[in-house]
Amino acid sequence: MKNLESLHLPGDAAQLAANHNNDIASLSFRARLIIEKFKFGEEIEKLDEANRLYQFVREISVWAN
What we know:
The two termini are 16 Å apart. The chain is globular and about 30 Å long. The protein is built from four helices and no strands. It has one domain. The model has no long low-confidence stretch (mean pLDDT 80). It is mainly α. The protein has helices spanning 16-25, 29-37, 40-49, 53-64.
């Protein structure tokens, strides 16, 4: 299982959605099915379009560590 420290959190928030998609692709088949089932990809797009994705991921990373 991939841990949060190995996920990309670049200083450039514009690259976060692209990096997120790469991280998702590297997960197991079952993990990707769960992500698709709950439509996390759509939520990521909404956050990215609202310029809130970086803030959200940063908060989750702090909370998880």
